[in-house]
Amino acid sequence: MADCVVCQIVAGKAPARKVYEDEHTLAFLDLHPISRGHCLVIPKKHVQWFTDMEPQDGTAGPFLKSCYVVARKLKHAFDCEYVTMLIRGTRVPHLHMLLIPSVKGEENLLDKTLAFHHWCQVRMKPPFSEPELDTIAEKVKDAKV
Question: What does pTM read for this prediction?
Answer without folding.
Answer: 0.89
